[in-house]
Amino acid sequence: MSTLLEELAEERIRLETGHRILICGGIPCTSLGCRKVKEALEDELRRRGIEGQIPVEVVGCIGDCSLGPAMIVYPEGIVYQKLKPEDARAIVKEHLAKGRIVEKLLHRDPRTKEIIRQREQMPFYRDQSRLVLRNCGVISAHIDDYIKYRGYAALARALAEMTPEQVIEEVKTAGLRGRGGGGFPTGRKWEIIRAAAGEEKYVICNADEGDPGAFMDRNILEGDPHSVLEGMIIAGYAAGARQGYIYVRAEYPMAVRRAREAIAQAREKKLLGENIFEKGFNFDIAIRIGAGAFVCGEETALISSIHGTRGDPNPRPPFPAQKGLWGMPTLINNVETLANIPLIVLHGGARFAGLGTPGSSGTKVFALAGKVNRAGLVEVPLGTPLRKIVFDIGGGIPGDKRFKAAQTGGPSGGCLGPELLDIPMDYRSLQEAGSMVGSGGLIIMDEDTCMVDIARFYLDFTQDESCGKCTPCRIGTKRMLEILEKITAGKGEERDLETLEQLALLLKNSSLCGLGRSAPNPVLSTLHRFQDEYLAHIRERRCPAGVCPNLSRPWIMEDKCRACGICSRLCPAAAITGKKGTPYRIDPAKCIDCTKCFEECPFDAIGRGGGVYAETADR
Amino acid sequence: MAVRPAKEKELYGQLTLALEKYKGKPGVLIAALQEAQQVFGYLPRKVMIHVANELTIPLAEVYSVVSFYSLFSTVPVGVHRLEVCMGTACYVRGAEQLLKELQKKTGAEPGKVTADGLFSVATTRCVGACSAAPVIKIGEELHGGATPGQLDALLEELKKR
Ligand SMILES: Cc1cc2nc3c(=O)[nH]c(=O)nc-3n(C[C@H](O)[C@H](O)[C@H](O)COP(=O)(O)O)c2cc1C
Ligand code: FES
């Protein structure tokens, strides 16, 4: 299917013949001032009397958020980066008027210093296979642009040439699995709902994106909402539904707005409503807005929430496919899953299945963030090694720090250590490593991240988000959190680790829904992979990463200290004393943990984490 | 913020009007409460009672929904509502320190508004701008790549608005 990527690239060259400018309107670019750049550009065009001839559009995230504010100038597809309003002048005067590319605004490869003009040549994109994200940041979210790029052609094909069963067969051939976390085969799910009895059936697009650290669904809805609508309409046709809902979290106001606009545009073009493409098929879509609850991403809880009540999950069976929204058979698919559908129907399931690994076909969008140089959305074939994502695409860890772990699958997933950098990122490999693909969150951690604290962080999250309906989850997450708090406070005991394991097992086996069943994963995976860090907290009362406040005070290594006195002069709390000839000392009662001494010591004689203060940590 | 009685009456009038479209329909409570929160900024008990009465839904049910979803606030919010994202990406990039600094600099205690009513400081769930972590949400606006060093300037700018 690499040829499919090439086809898409060629299509762009064919379609983009005139000048037009796309400015990234993703959140990072917005907070870096992309709006001012746009205004400056429009002023400049107006001054030259060519406004209106060259469209300036704000699009969804272009991708590499370290380049913001960024823009693409067609037809050449030149990317200008780190723009300021005053750069507008050069772009108009040189590029638009004379066709001369403004070199100083181009991106330079940080390593090779090579100048990079087009997006596809940037290290961040070179190794990506942007199929689901094919339109994000590359065209505008307007339906006209989408149609220009063969949008709704898949729907036309499905309605004109295929029976619902054939559509399902195509999706099964593709081997597409759910991208929302569960990884259930999508074609199989559609088939079950098609076969289910019910006078009404529904399609729900799950845009709750609860994993803190995942942002692909938001970007797809903002950057390419019509691909999701098209996927939903095709799903409705295949499953035999007439009504669809997009359940989107309220934290994403821009995604809500874009989805609303997209629905209105599709209705106007009669791609939603009655008798779509004159083929006698009716389908419409409404939006339901969540109110901030992680569990509402779970399908039965989501349905409760659409019913307007607390988002409590319910025991399955009955599965939503049998008895879902308003008691009717309901198909629930994730945003990214649905955005894959038009590609599969248009280009055939077999081509899709050619990408990825057996059992994990197609591409997956990972939300790369945390301690990594180039953060942003990364779409690669499933099975791509982690190392390639973190180092080749993400540019490695900032400040020459060491890679410590990659967290995948969010609060339901686990951490992969440096020994797993070559793991193929697919469903089976990650599961075997005690983690999961999940929704595709990928948070990179370096030596300054404490893995015990990360486990505590996730449990704090799941404990807070536990709906409280079932006892194992309600009380179990609380108990596990208490133990982790005890350990990070420097009061842990070794038998706590055993208790953690026992509780973890209990939650996994007896919780009502996936939230409780997967909540122990971050603890288990750190416990198994980073046991020495837990033990350092417990046995040595030391946090090796220097994160846990009680266990991270600076201390002076006597054998390294040359008694130069620099730390003492720098210390804002006058906590460091000493005299020439003997090692200095830090008074723990006065130390405010500002870490100045640690950073400035010319002999690296100051360590962090426990050491001589192990005894003084209150027990 | 204390609301003047005349203003309060107006707000209730506005709410009653807004609730009209939800009456007698199933599955509307969350949307109705979202609208109520837009009118009042938060959902004090009196507002919940008003919603319960208008929609003839038991107050217990209204409260059960309000207390369930993190988006609903039962405590007042400042003119500038500052929320530090506590998602994973922001957390590993120093959100906690940011939160502490912000509380210190504004003097806003958790769940309370500053004496001048200008600021409230809270945490929020991931806002989906993880590549710009750490992120502060100011009303509807997102401020990415935030550092403690920027806070003074940011707060000054907000005071001028
Ligand atoms: C606690 C919990 C949270 C979930 N959150 C989400 C979510 O935010 N988005 C999502 O698409 N699926 C989420 N899921 C998975 C859904 O229950 C469901 O499997 C999925 O939406 C099905 O779509 P898919 O087959 O296309 O992935 C969650 C599951 C659990 C147990
Ligand atoms: S973690 Fe803060 S925006 Fe996602």
Please describe what this structure looks like.
Chain A has 619 residues and is α/β, with parallel strands linked by helices. Chain A folds into 5 domains: 2-126, Glutaredoxin; 143-353, NADH-ubiquinone oxidoreductase 51kDa subunit (Rossmann fold), CATH 3.40.50.11540; 356-446, Ubiquitin-like (UB roll) (Roll), CATH 3.10.20; 451-539, Up-down Bundle (de novo design (two linked rop proteins)); 553-616, Alpha-Beta Plaits, CATH 3.30.70.20. Chain A is built from 25 helices and 22 strands. In chain A, the strands form 7 sheets. Chain A has a 5-stranded mixed beta sheet with strand order 9-10-8-7-11, with helices on both faces. In chain A, helix 10 crosses helix 11, helix 10 packs parallel to helix 12 and helix 18 runs antiparallel to helix 19. Chain A starts with a helix and ends in an 11-residue tail after the last strand. Mean pLDDT of chain A is 92; it is low at 611-619. In chain B, helix 2 packs across helix 3. The model of chain B has no long low-confidence stretch (mean pLDDT 92). In chain B, strand 3 (136-138) and strand 4 (141-143) form a beta hairpin. Chain B is of the alpha+beta class. In chain B, strands 2-1-3-4 form a 4-stranded mixed beta sheet, covered by helices on one side. Chain B folds into 2 domains: 5-68; 80-160, 3-Layer(aba) Sandwich (Glutaredoxin). FE2/S2 (inorganic) cluster (FES) binds next to helix 5 of chain B.
Characteristics of this structure?
heterodimer, A: 619 residues, alpha/beta, Glutaredoxin, Rossmann fold, Ubiquitin-like (UB roll), 5 domains, 5-stranded mixed beta sheet, 40% helix, globular, disordered C terminus, B: 161 residues, alpha+beta, 2 domains, 7 helices, 4 strands, binds flavin mononucleotide, binds FE2/S2 (inorganic) cluster
